[in-house]
Amino acid sequence: MSGLRLDGIRSRALGPLDLTVAAGELVFVSGPSGSGKSLLLRAVADLDPHEGEVWLGEEPRSRIAPSIWRRRVGLLPAEAFWWAESVGEHLPVIRSTHADRAASTHRRLLSAPLHPAILRLSKPFRRAPRRVSNHPALPDHSTITDWLGHLGFAPDVLGWSVTRLSTGERQRLALVRLLAQTPEALLLDEATANLDPSSGARVESVVEAYRKTRGAAVLWVSHDPGQRRRIGGRSLVIRNERLEPEA
Ligand SMILES: Nc1ncnc2c1ncn2[C@@H]1O[C@H](COP(=O)(O)OP(=O)(O)OP(=O)(O)O)[C@@H](O)[C@H]1O
After folding, report:
1. How high is the ipTM of this complex?
2. Which controlled-vocabulary keywords does the entry list (predicted)?
Protein backbone atom coordinates (compact mmCIF):
# COMPACT_ATOMS: atom_id res chain seq x y z
CA MET A 1 0.00 0.00 0.00
CA SER A 2 0.98 3.58 -0.56
CA GLY A 3 0.95 6.80 1.38
CA LEU A 4 -0.65 9.99 0.14
CA ARG A 5 1.33 13.20 -0.24
CA LEU A 6 -0.20 16.60 -1.02
CA ASP A 7 2.26 19.04 -2.49
CA GLY A 8 1.21 22.68 -2.75
CA ILE A 9 -2.50 21.99 -3.20
CA ARG A 10 -4.35 25.24 -3.83
CA SER A 11 -8.06 25.25 -4.58
CA ARG A 12 -10.58 28.12 -4.44
CA ALA A 13 -10.36 29.56 -0.92
CA LEU A 14 -7.80 27.00 0.20
CA GLY A 15 -4.06 26.54 0.37
CA PRO A 16 -1.38 26.12 -0.61
CA LEU A 17 -1.39 22.94 1.49
CA ASP A 18 1.25 20.30 2.06
CA LEU A 19 0.40 17.10 3.87
CA THR A 20 1.71 13.56 4.10
CA VAL A 21 -0.52 10.68 5.18
CA ALA A 22 1.55 7.52 5.48
CA ALA A 23 0.28 4.14 4.29
CA GLY A 24 -1.95 2.81 7.06
CA GLU A 25 -2.16 6.22 8.76
CA LEU A 26 -5.38 8.04 9.66
CA VAL A 27 -5.51 11.84 9.67
CA PHE A 28 -8.64 13.68 10.78
CA VAL A 29 -9.46 17.11 9.35
CA SER A 30 -11.90 19.46 11.05
CA GLY A 31 -12.68 23.16 10.79
CA PRO A 32 -15.61 25.55 10.74
CA SER A 33 -18.38 25.19 8.20
CA GLY A 34 -17.21 26.65 4.90
CA SER A 35 -13.52 26.45 5.79
CA GLY A 36 -12.75 24.22 2.81
CA LYS A 37 -12.75 20.64 4.13
CA SER A 38 -14.81 19.23 1.24
CA LEU A 39 -12.84 21.35 -1.22
CA LEU A 40 -9.68 19.75 0.09
CA LEU A 41 -10.99 16.20 -0.41
CA ARG A 42 -12.39 17.07 -3.83
CA ALA A 43 -9.04 18.52 -4.90
CA VAL A 44 -7.21 15.37 -3.77
CA ALA A 45 -9.76 13.26 -5.66
CA ASP A 46 -9.19 15.52 -8.70
CA LEU A 47 -12.84 16.52 -8.90
CA ASP A 48 -12.32 20.31 -8.74
CA PRO A 49 -9.88 22.59 -10.53
CA HIS A 50 -6.79 23.24 -8.37
CA GLU A 51 -3.04 23.69 -8.39
CA GLY A 52 -0.40 21.40 -6.97
CA GLU A 53 0.32 17.71 -7.12
CA VAL A 54 -0.81 14.68 -5.14
CA TRP A 55 1.35 11.58 -4.89
CA LEU A 56 0.21 8.06 -4.17
CA GLY A 57 3.42 6.41 -3.06
CA GLU A 58 5.91 7.28 -5.79
CA GLU A 59 3.27 8.01 -8.42
CA PRO A 60 2.15 11.56 -9.16
CA ARG A 61 -1.51 11.92 -9.94
CA SER A 62 -0.69 13.77 -13.16
CA ARG A 63 0.63 10.47 -14.59
CA ILE A 64 -2.49 8.45 -13.70
CA ALA A 65 -5.75 8.51 -15.69
CA PRO A 66 -8.45 10.31 -13.66
CA SER A 67 -10.78 7.30 -13.56
CA ILE A 68 -7.97 5.06 -12.25
CA TRP A 69 -6.90 7.72 -9.75
CA ARG A 70 -10.42 7.95 -8.33
CA ARG A 71 -10.59 4.22 -7.92
CA ARG A 72 -7.23 4.13 -6.14
CA VAL A 73 -7.93 7.23 -4.04
CA GLY A 74 -11.58 6.73 -3.12
CA LEU A 75 -13.78 9.62 -2.02
CA LEU A 76 -16.84 9.05 0.16
CA PRO A 77 -18.75 12.30 -0.38
CA ALA A 78 -21.09 13.69 2.26
CA GLU A 79 -23.99 12.90 -0.09
CA ALA A 80 -23.28 10.01 -2.40
CA PHE A 81 -24.94 9.88 -5.82
CA TRP A 82 -26.68 6.64 -6.89
CA TRP A 83 -27.30 6.05 -10.56
CA ALA A 84 -28.56 2.48 -11.04
CA GLU A 85 -31.83 0.98 -9.87
CA SER A 86 -30.64 -1.49 -7.25
CA VAL A 87 -27.93 -1.35 -4.60
CA GLY A 88 -26.12 -4.40 -6.02
CA GLU A 89 -25.71 -2.82 -9.44
CA HIS A 90 -23.36 -0.27 -7.86
CA LEU A 91 -20.89 -2.88 -6.67
CA PRO A 92 -18.17 -3.96 -9.13
CA VAL A 93 -18.08 -7.57 -7.96
CA ILE A 94 -21.80 -7.93 -8.57
CA ARG A 95 -21.59 -6.09 -11.88
CA SER A 96 -18.70 -8.32 -12.95
CA THR A 97 -20.76 -11.40 -12.12
CA HIS A 98 -23.41 -10.10 -14.51
CA ALA A 99 -20.74 -9.25 -17.08
CA ASP A 100 -19.11 -12.66 -16.78
CA ARG A 101 -22.48 -14.34 -17.20
CA ALA A 102 -23.12 -12.29 -20.34
CA ALA A 103 -19.61 -13.09 -21.61
CA SER A 104 -20.11 -16.82 -21.12
CA THR A 105 -23.46 -16.68 -22.94
CA HIS A 106 -21.66 -14.77 -25.68
CA ARG A 107 -18.96 -17.47 -25.91
CA ARG A 108 -21.56 -20.27 -25.92
CA LEU A 109 -23.48 -18.61 -28.72
CA LEU A 110 -20.36 -18.03 -30.80
CA SER A 111 -19.30 -21.67 -30.50
CA ALA A 112 -22.76 -22.91 -31.45
CA PRO A 113 -23.59 -23.91 -35.05
CA LEU A 114 -24.37 -20.86 -37.11
CA HIS A 115 -28.11 -21.37 -37.25
CA PRO A 116 -29.84 -18.13 -38.31
CA ALA A 117 -32.00 -18.13 -35.19
CA ILE A 118 -28.89 -18.33 -33.02
CA LEU A 119 -27.22 -15.59 -35.01
CA ARG A 120 -30.25 -13.40 -34.33
CA LEU A 121 -30.13 -14.33 -30.66
CA SER A 122 -26.42 -13.56 -30.37
CA LYS A 123 -26.80 -10.02 -31.66
CA PRO A 124 -27.29 -8.36 -28.30
CA PHE A 125 -24.09 -10.03 -27.07
CA ARG A 126 -21.89 -9.04 -30.03
CA ARG A 127 -20.30 -6.19 -28.13
CA ALA A 128 -18.07 -7.78 -25.46
CA PRO A 129 -19.15 -6.73 -21.97
CA ARG A 130 -16.98 -4.06 -20.38
CA ARG A 131 -14.42 -5.78 -18.15
CA VAL A 132 -14.59 -4.53 -14.64
CA SER A 133 -12.95 -7.50 -13.02
CA ASN A 134 -9.30 -6.96 -14.01
CA HIS A 135 -8.52 -4.86 -10.95
CA PRO A 136 -5.91 -6.84 -9.00
CA ALA A 137 -7.77 -7.00 -5.73
CA LEU A 138 -11.52 -6.68 -6.18
CA PRO A 139 -13.19 -8.17 -3.11
CA ASP A 140 -15.15 -11.37 -3.48
CA HIS A 141 -18.82 -11.70 -2.68
CA SER A 142 -18.23 -12.92 0.87
CA THR A 143 -16.05 -9.91 1.73
CA ILE A 144 -18.84 -7.62 0.57
CA THR A 145 -21.37 -9.65 2.55
CA ASP A 146 -19.11 -9.29 5.62
CA TRP A 147 -18.91 -5.52 5.25
CA LEU A 148 -22.67 -5.38 4.79
CA GLY A 149 -23.17 -7.51 7.92
CA HIS A 150 -20.84 -5.32 9.99
CA LEU A 151 -22.84 -2.31 8.85
CA GLY A 152 -26.13 -3.92 9.86
CA PHE A 153 -27.41 -5.24 6.51
CA ALA A 154 -28.49 -8.71 5.39
CA PRO A 155 -27.21 -9.73 1.92
CA ASP A 156 -30.66 -9.15 0.42
CA VAL A 157 -29.96 -5.41 0.62
CA LEU A 158 -28.16 -5.87 -2.71
CA GLY A 159 -31.55 -6.33 -4.34
CA TRP A 160 -33.08 -3.25 -2.71
CA SER A 161 -34.10 -0.36 -4.90
CA VAL A 162 -32.01 2.73 -4.13
CA THR A 163 -35.21 4.79 -4.00
CA ARG A 164 -36.21 3.17 -0.70
CA LEU A 165 -32.93 3.88 1.10
CA SER A 166 -32.97 6.15 4.13
CA THR A 167 -30.25 8.79 4.44
CA GLY A 168 -28.30 6.68 6.92
CA GLU A 169 -28.68 3.53 4.81
CA ARG A 170 -27.36 5.44 1.82
CA GLN A 171 -24.39 6.61 3.83
CA ARG A 172 -23.46 3.13 5.08
CA LEU A 173 -24.00 1.50 1.69
CA ALA A 174 -21.94 4.21 -0.01
CA LEU A 175 -19.05 3.11 2.20
CA VAL A 176 -19.43 -0.51 1.03
CA ARG A 177 -19.59 0.72 -2.56
CA LEU A 178 -16.38 2.67 -2.03
CA LEU A 179 -14.49 -0.18 -0.34
CA ALA A 180 -15.61 -2.56 -3.06
CA GLN A 181 -13.27 -0.64 -5.40
CA THR A 182 -10.39 -1.57 -3.02
CA PRO A 183 -8.98 1.96 -2.88
CA GLU A 184 -5.43 2.39 -1.60
CA ALA A 185 -6.34 5.66 0.11
CA LEU A 186 -9.68 6.79 1.54
CA LEU A 187 -11.07 10.33 1.58
CA LEU A 188 -14.04 10.37 3.93
CA ASP A 189 -16.30 13.42 4.08
CA GLU A 190 -18.28 13.26 7.33
CA ALA A 191 -18.77 9.51 6.95
CA THR A 192 -20.99 9.23 10.04
CA ALA A 193 -22.84 12.57 9.88
CA ASN A 194 -26.29 11.04 9.36
CA LEU A 195 -25.95 8.06 11.67
CA ASP A 196 -27.05 7.20 15.20
CA PRO A 197 -24.17 6.40 17.58
CA SER A 198 -24.44 2.64 17.11
CA SER A 199 -24.42 2.83 13.29
CA GLY A 200 -21.62 5.40 13.51
CA ALA A 201 -19.57 2.96 15.58
CA ARG A 202 -20.15 0.25 12.96
CA VAL A 203 -18.83 2.56 10.24
CA GLU A 204 -15.82 3.43 12.37
CA SER A 205 -14.97 -0.21 12.90
CA VAL A 206 -15.30 -1.11 9.19
CA VAL A 207 -13.07 1.82 8.18
CA GLU A 208 -10.53 0.96 10.87
CA ALA A 209 -10.45 -2.71 9.86
CA TYR A 210 -9.97 -1.71 6.21
CA ARG A 211 -7.21 0.76 7.09
CA LYS A 212 -5.32 -1.76 9.19
CA THR A 213 -5.68 -4.82 6.98
CA ARG A 214 -5.04 -3.00 3.70
CA GLY A 215 -2.60 -0.39 4.99
CA ALA A 216 -4.75 2.35 3.46
CA ALA A 217 -3.95 6.02 4.03
CA VAL A 218 -7.13 7.69 5.37
CA LEU A 219 -7.99 11.38 5.31
CA TRP A 220 -11.22 11.78 7.28
CA VAL A 221 -13.22 15.01 7.60
CA SER A 222 -15.06 14.83 10.91
CA HIS A 223 -16.92 17.38 13.01
CA ASP A 224 -17.12 14.97 15.92
CA PRO A 225 -14.43 15.49 18.58
CA GLY A 226 -15.61 12.29 20.34
CA GLN A 227 -14.95 10.32 17.18
CA ARG A 228 -11.49 11.84 16.76
CA ARG A 229 -10.64 10.99 20.39
CA ARG A 230 -12.10 7.49 20.14
CA ILE A 231 -10.22 6.49 17.03
CA GLY A 232 -7.02 8.44 17.62
CA GLY A 233 -4.61 9.35 14.87
CA ARG A 234 -3.45 12.82 13.88
CA SER A 235 -5.99 15.64 14.03
CA LEU A 236 -5.62 18.72 11.84
CA VAL A 237 -7.82 21.76 11.52
CA ILE A 238 -8.28 24.13 8.59
CA ARG A 239 -7.75 27.72 9.71
CA ASN A 240 -7.31 30.67 7.39
CA GLU A 241 -7.04 28.35 4.41
CA ARG A 242 -4.18 26.37 5.99
CA LEU A 243 -3.91 23.02 7.77
CA GLU A 244 -2.72 23.26 11.37
CA PRO A 245 -2.41 20.67 14.14
CA GLU A 246 -5.53 20.69 16.31
CA ALA A 247 -4.83 22.39 19.64
N1 LIG B 1 -18.38 25.32 -6.74
C2 LIG B 1 -18.15 26.34 -5.88
N3 LIG B 1 -18.19 27.61 -6.30
C4 LIG B 1 -17.93 28.64 -5.46
N5 LIG B 1 -17.65 28.48 -4.16
C6 LIG B 1 -17.62 27.23 -3.70
C7 LIG B 1 -17.86 26.09 -4.50
N8 LIG B 1 -17.74 24.96 -3.76
C9 LIG B 1 -17.47 25.39 -2.52
N10 LIG B 1 -17.39 26.74 -2.47
C11 LIG B 1 -17.14 27.57 -1.30
O12 LIG B 1 -15.90 27.20 -0.74
C13 LIG B 1 -15.97 27.25 0.68
C14 LIG B 1 -15.57 25.92 1.28
O15 LIG B 1 -16.56 24.95 0.95
P16 LIG B 1 -16.51 23.46 1.53
O17 LIG B 1 -17.66 22.74 0.94
O18 LIG B 1 -15.16 22.92 1.31
O19 LIG B 1 -16.74 23.75 3.08
P20 LIG B 1 -16.67 22.72 4.29
O21 LIG B 1 -15.52 23.12 5.15
O22 LIG B 1 -16.69 21.34 3.79
O23 LIG B 1 -18.02 23.10 5.04
P24 LIG B 1 -19.13 22.20 5.81
O25 LIG B 1 -18.50 21.81 7.12
O26 LIG B 1 -20.26 23.18 5.98
O27 LIG B 1 -19.48 21.04 4.93
C28 LIG B 1 -17.41 27.66 1.03
O29 LIG B 1 -17.44 29.05 1.29
C30 LIG B 1 -18.18 27.32 -0.21
O31 LIG B 1 -19.30 28.18 -0.38
Report:
1. 0.95
2. ATP-binding, Nucleotide-binding
